[in-house]
Specification:
The complex is a heterodimer of chains A (426) and B (310). The relative contact order of chain A is 0.12. Chain A contains 21 helices and four strands. Chain A has helices at 2-14, 16-36, 38-42, 44-47, 60-72, 78-90, 93-101, 104-107, 117-125, 139-148, 166-196, 201-204, 213-221, 224-253, 256-262, 267-297, 305-335, 339-356, 368-374, 378-390, 395-419; strands at residues 50-56, 110-114, 131-135, 158-161. Chain B is built from eleven helices and 14 strands. Chain B has a six-stranded mixed sheet, sandwiched between helices. A four-stranded antiparallel sheet of chain B has the order 2-1-4-5, covered by helices on one side. A four-stranded antiparallel sheet of chain B has the order 12-13-11-14, with helices on one face. In chain B, strand 4 (55-60) and strand 5 (63-64) form a beta hairpin. The chains are: A mainly alpha (426), B alpha/beta (310). Chains A and B meet through helix 1 and helix 15 of A and helix 2 and helix 3 of B.
């Protein structure tokens, strides 16, 4: 396979026209689209309109009273009891959640309706709301017990939705961030009590109380240059699979493939070489484009090593999928009598994948069904993963789409091997 | 050494190759002649195990190539009609790639490449990309790529199409060298009858998918031993004269060529005076009459009713 890989890579590298298209055109497009369509990306949160039902079974005031009553029965000093009680008054999770959901910052895109559980489910079924946020009975008491006294189980807010739409993802991110913020504050509160005594508790009140906004800032943070640098780079990397297939047409027509078969080489070595060279070419292309874009447009300033590792991982998975597609297109080309038809199919798929995957048009302007469909394309999935990753998703959030990408690769490689004329006859 | 037995290939109900039986003995140089669409390339593809015949067999030393394609691939070198090379690679890189594909490595491969480049006269230009070469130079490298593994049998499919005389001579010399000095068995297909005459001990004439004649040059010429060929140079062509000549007794064929009229008549038919009279009758002046012994082109024309390059 090595010899095929070297040859294919060299053939790519020497094709000046192809190299210009692969490396210069995307950068030009990023500049043009970054400026021309900046509003579509950067103001996309204005277009997001999330409708959610809030089922509030928790009574914050009663929850606080029960907590304070229980606190008094604990074997603590009077000073400690006073400090914890004050902290609890300034730190009521149920109320904080309501504040966050009804804040001025979220009003522009989040429409919360408080409903009972039955009505909320009905509205969800009728698709009148995107999701239901349920705050269970006794949430405040349980949260205060857990956070300030380290007693009892974790208090849980649940989010219920029928589809994993962008709106639901944004809402989920807000809640995740809110809970993370609540936990951080509780940790700070505990630390303060350990070291500073009762007076410090006053400082707690001055801590930022609005959880979730941190994440929303993340949503807004996707700039048009970030979006298009990723989208265009992915699209051009995807196009390497089509280019590979078009080069195979020449090899078939000019009987180079025949010559390779006559040498007694197993045909799958040829196919593997195609996939390997496509993988390397797409990795190189993405690396060069994103590194240059990063330095020109300052795409990801101050990001951690972990961020870059995650980014690289997502892109490598994408390149594996692109390599698999190159193998499939090549196999189709050798299987079909008319190579131009096979080439036409691969080009058509490139364009369709590019559109529904959000590479040629911003994903935010696509209808939900197109976004869902785009998420089964390797490019659409990679772009969606990258956007989430930039917004601060964790590695845990990536496993499911990465697993899907791996399944896609295996299925496409299997199909390619099955289609390719492996017996060594034309 | 290599033989085909009633080889047949049918594509979508159309018979491309029909019961072709031919053989190549060790060290022979055999020509396969036929116009475009005669079925030569399909026959070659089946011989080289790339195409499965509808029926019939190809045997190498008595062993079926259809069942054991790897056997022939080890000993066969094929020079395809197309330039089966990578344009973006140099001739050295192309030969190195195909050498690797044949399992050659290291110094042995390097030496073989240099030897072949020397043989095809392109050693000095080995670093240049194929796309910068002339058509003839590309064809020479195309041949070299088929010889990397020292094949016992070489099949050449129209190796001199569309090239300059210098490259053509070079290629013909290479084929001679391979066959006569190295003992390589050669199956040579061409449109150019004179090439086949020069290079081959025996030849097969193919038309409409069938072998219509075979033998040595002399054996084939004997097909026309009962005929005389007249090459008549005129001051101008006259279609009426052509028609009148064709209608004459014992005249079998009249063809207008760039050099004049080519007339084939039964041997000793004594029609020379009649030709002169007919020309005078149509006020056409005869500049020269040359009586030719029949060429292989004439044989082909006689057998198929058309020229090789029709």
């Amino acid at each position: 396979m090595n010899v095929f890989f070297k040859k294919d890579f060299l053939v790519y590298w020497r094709d000046r026209k192809e190299m210009l298209i692969a490396f210069i055109l995307p950068l030009v497009l990023v500049v043009i689209l970054g400026f021309a369509l900046s509003g579509w990306v950067e103001n996309s949160n204005e277009n997001i309109e999330i409708k959610a039902a809030l089922v509030m079974l928790d009574q914050s005031k009663e929850g606080l009273e029960r907590f304070q009553y229980k606190l008094n029965s604990l074997p603590l000093t009077a000073d400690e009891k006073t400090a914890i009680s004050k902290a609890a008054e300034a730190f009521i999770p149920g109320a904080m959640l309501l504040d966050m959901l009804n804040s001025d910052e979220t009003k522009g895109f989040l429409n919360i309706t408080q409903l009972d559980e039955e009505s909320a489910l009905k509205q969800l079924n009728e698709e009148k709301v995107d999701a239901i946020i349920l705050v269970p009975e006794g949430y405040t008491e349980a949260a205060l017990n857990s956070l300030l006294l380290r007693k009892g189980g974790e208090a849980e807010i649940t989010l219920t939705a029928d589809t994993d739409s962008l709106n639901v993802q944004v809402l989920q991110n807000m809640l995740d961030s809110f809970l993370s913020d609540v936990n951080n504050q509780a940790a700070l509160s505990s630390a303060s009590r350990s070291y500073g005594g009762a007076e410090i508790s006053g400082a707690e009140a001055s801590l930022p109380l609005v959880g979730g906004m941190e994440q929303m800032e993340g949503v807004e943070m996707i700039t048009s240059f970030q979006y298009f640098a990723l989208a265009i780079s992915i699209f051009f990397a995807l196009s390497v699979s089509t280019t590979t297939a078009s080069k195979s047409i020449t090899e078939k027509r000019e009987q180079v493939f025949m010559r390779i078969l006559l040498a007694g080489t197993h045909p799958l070595r040829y196919l593997a070489g195609k996939a390997a060279s496509t993988f390397c070419m797409s990795v190189l292309q993405l690396a060069v484009l994103l590194v240059i874009s990063h330095f020109i447009y300052d795409l990801f300033p101050g990001k951690s090593l972990e961020f870059w590792i995650g980014l690289s991982f997502i892109l490598i998975m994408l390149c594996l999928a692109i390599a698999a597609l190159a193998a499939l297109y090549t196999a189709m080309l050798f299987r079909m009598k008319d190579a131009d038809v096979a080439s036409g199919i691969s080009f058509l798929l490139l364009i369709v994948f590019g559109i529904i995957g959000g590479n040629l048009v911003p994903i935010y302007i696509l209808p939900d069904w197109a976004i869902s469909l785009g998420n089964v394309t390797p490019n659409g999935l990679a772009l969606s993963m990258l956007l989430q990753w930039i917004q601060g998703s964790s590695f845990d959030d990536l496993w499911q789409p990465v697993f899907y990408q791996a399944i896609f690769c295996v299925a496409i490689v299997g199909a390619s091997v099955w289609i390719f004329p492996r017996r060594g006859r034309l | 050494m290599l033989e085909t037995v009633e080889l047949r290939k049918v594509y979508k109900g159309k018979t491309a190759v029909d019961e072709v039986s031919l053989y190549l003995d060790h060290g022979e140089s055999v020509g396969l002649i036929g116009p475009n669409g005669a079925g030569k390339s399909t026959t070659i593809s089946m011989i080289s195990s790339l195409l499965k015949p509808t029926s019939g067999d190809v045997r190498l030393n008595g062993k079926s190539v259809i069942k054991h394609p790897q056997e022939i691939r080890k000993v066969l070198g094929v020079v395809p009609q197309q330039i089966a090379l990578y344009e973006e690679l140099s001739s050295y890189e192309n030969l190195k790639f195909f050498g690797h594909v044949y399992g050659l490595r290291g110094k042995a491969l390097d030496m073989k490449i240099q030897q072949l480049l020397e043989m095809v006269g392109l050693r000095e230009r080995q670093k240049e990309l194929i796309k910068t070469y002339s058509g003839g130079m590309k064809r020479r490298i195309n041949i070299a790529a088929a010889l990397l593994h020292d094949p016992q049998i070489v099949i050449m499919d129209e190796p001199t199409v569309g090239i300059d005389p210098q490259s053509r001579n070079h290629i013909l010399e290479t084929v001679r060298l391979l066959n006569r000095e190295k003992g390589t068995t050669v199956l040579y297909t061409s449109h150019y009858m004179e090439e086949v005459e020069q290079l081959c001990n025996r030849m097969y004439i193919m038309d409409h998918g069938r072998i219509i004649a075979s033998g040595t040059k002399e054996e084939l010429q004997r097909i026309l031993s009962g005929e005389d060929t007249f090459l008549i140079q005129l001051n101008h062509q006259n279609p009426n004269l052509t028609s009148e000549l064709l209608a004459m007794e014992n005249v079998r064929q009249v063809e207008e060529t760039s050099e004049g009229l080519k007339l084939i008549a039964a041997k000793n038919s004594r029609i020379l005076s009649k030709i002169v009279q007919a020309a005078e009758g149509h006020q056409v002046q005869i500049l020269n009459i040359h009586i030719q012994s029949p060429s292989l082109e004439d044989v082909f024309l006689h057998l198929t009713g058309r020229t090789l390059r029709d």
